[in-house]
Amino acid sequence: MGFRSTSEFREVMDQVFEMMSTDEDMGPRLREAEVPQRFDFPDMDLVVNIAHAPEVRDGHHLRWEWSNDVDWDCEVEMRMDSDVANRYFQGEENVALAIARRRIKTSGNVKKALALIPITKPLFPRYRELLEERYPHLVA
Fold first, then answer.
1. Radius of gyration for the alpha carbons in the chain, expressed in angstroms and rounded
2. Domain residue ranges in the chain
3. Which single residue of 3, 31, 49, 72 could bond 9 by disulfide (Cβ 3.0 to 4.6 Å)?
4. Distance between CA atoms of 113 and 77, rounded to whole angstroms?
5. Can you tell me the distance from the alpha carbon of 119 to that of 114, in angstroms, rounded to the nearest whole number?
């Protein structure tokens, strides 16, 4: 079973971005990488733009907007359905393979985005734990 609604998807993804942004190891490394990204989720009719925070505030190293109206340019664009994103954050979706099979469509500097994957891997068990506790219908 997938996300029950667009609002549930946003709620879960906001928690994912919060975890990445405030993590003591992941947050600073993602901020230093400076790889602004745009994610398009056509099945949810949503887009989110993520970039490094200009300065760290309240422990946040990233900023994100559920809009195309942002004051930064994205280096990488990825388009995928919400179920692909859900599987990825559980460690169940190989991004390179998903790109090859067109489950994720990309443009821009994909090599830079792929370099972020090892940084975000520690998120996978935390995401799965979140799902098991609050969204069991999303566990892959």
1. 14
2. 6-131
3. 3
4. 9
5. 10
Which phi and psi angles does 67 have, rounded to 5°?
-165, 160
Look over the chain and give the mean of its residue pLDDT values, rounded to a whole number: 96
1 pLDDT exceeds 90?
Answer: no
DSSP conformation letters of the chain: ---S-HHHHHHHHHHHHHHHHH-TTHHHHHHHH---EEEEETTTTEEEEEEEEEEEETTEEEEEESSS--SS--SEEEEE-HHHHHHHHTT-S-HHHHHHTTSEEEEE-HHHHHTTHHHHTTHHHHHHHHHHHH-GGG--
Q: Which CATH superfamily is domain 6-131 in?
A: SCP2 sterol-binding domain (3.30.1050.10)
Asked if pLDDT for residue 138 goes beyond 80, the answer is: yes
Name the token pair of 18: 């919060």
- Extract the tokens encoding 46: 């949503």
Q: Give residue 16's region: left, alpha or beta (phi > 0; psi -120 to 50).
A: alpha
